[in-house]
Each structure stands twice: as structure tokens, then as C-alpha cells.
Recover the amino acids of this structure.
């Protein structure tokens, strides 16, 4: 609970204000450690649009129909990449702990962690640090780049 004037000022800083801009106006830090945790674990969705399925097919030099049929599924009115029963993404290599389609990875993966759902508040941003060791560390990412990445996906 906030009791002191300092606490109140800190609280105010963690929400968007129309004149001052978003709470992350001074930029954020992120650097992927390649741990692979975001591609594995509990069930989830990696949303893909037709152009992204096409990019994966081109990268793997396979027919787009094969990628669509074998490695995607409909869900909630959208299309997601498939995952294995253990939650690993269908394109995750467990031996190398890496993405096998990295240069053609979907927007959702490319823009992590700068999703609107993670940027809604400082608390939301800090909440994802538990699952992603790269959040809040390493490379400085300026406001303009954060906004550009967040505008790319609806997550
Ligand atoms: S969880 Fe974070 S640090 Fe680990 S691979 Fe994913 S983005 Fe990189």
C-alpha cells in the first residue's frame, strides 16, 4: 500500500499519463539470453498470419500447404503454430535449445517482450521477468522502438 509522498510519486510513474507519455517513456532494457524458456513450458499460442506461414514455408523450402496442415492449428478464430504435448513449440530444437526457423520466426516471437499486454503497466512488465531472464537486462531499447514493436502484433 502507498503511504508516503514518495510512494505516490512512484505509483504515478508506473502508469501512463497523457502529457508525460507511457510509463516506459525513458526506454526499457531487454537482451535475450537464449534460454529457450519462452518457446517451451506450459501450453500457449504463437499466432501466425498467412504471410508468416508463407515465410516459414519459404525458409524451409516446403509447400505452404504442408506447413499449414502439419504445423498450425485453428484456435479462438485465429491460427497458431502447433506445439508438442510437453508445450514445446513445434519449431523448437530441444537439443540445441533454439528456434529452427529463427530468421523466419513469427512477429509474436520477434517482438517479444514488447507486447501491449506486457506494457500495460510497470507491474505487468515486472511480472514477466520471472519467466524471461532477458527482461530488464542488457540492451537499452528506446521508446520509439518499443512502440514500433508493440504496434506489430496484437498480443
Ligand atoms: S525466455 Fe526470454 S531470455 Fe529466454 S529465450 Fe525467451 S526471450 Fe530469450
Amino acid at each position: 500500500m502507498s503511504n508516503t509522498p514518495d510512494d505516490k510519486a512512484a505509483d504515478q510513474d508506473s502508469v501512463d499519463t497523457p502529457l508525460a507519455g507511457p510509463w516506459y517513456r525513458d526506454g526499457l532494457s531487454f537482451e535475450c539470453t537464449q534460454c529457450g524458456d519462452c518457446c517451451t513450458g506450459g501450453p500457449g499460442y504463437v499466432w501466425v498470419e498467412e504471410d508468416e506461414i508463407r515465410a516459414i514455408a519459404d525458409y524451409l523450402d516446403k509447400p505452404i500447404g504442408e506447413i499449414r496442415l502439419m504445423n498450425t492449428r485453428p484456435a479462438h478464430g485465429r491460427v497458431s503454430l502447433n506445439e508438442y504435448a510437453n508445450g514445446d513449440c513445434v519449431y523448437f530444437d530441444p537439443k540445441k535449445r533454439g528456434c529452427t526457423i529463427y530468421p523466419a520466426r513469427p512477429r509474436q516471437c520477434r517482438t517479444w517482450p514488447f507486447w501491449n499486454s506486457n506494457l500495460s503497466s510497470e507491474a505487468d512488465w515486472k511480472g514477466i521477468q520471472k519467466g524471461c531472464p532477458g527482461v530488464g537486462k542488457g540492451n537499452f531499447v528506446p521508446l520509439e522502438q518499443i512502440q514500433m514493436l508493440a504496434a506489430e502484433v496484437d498480443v
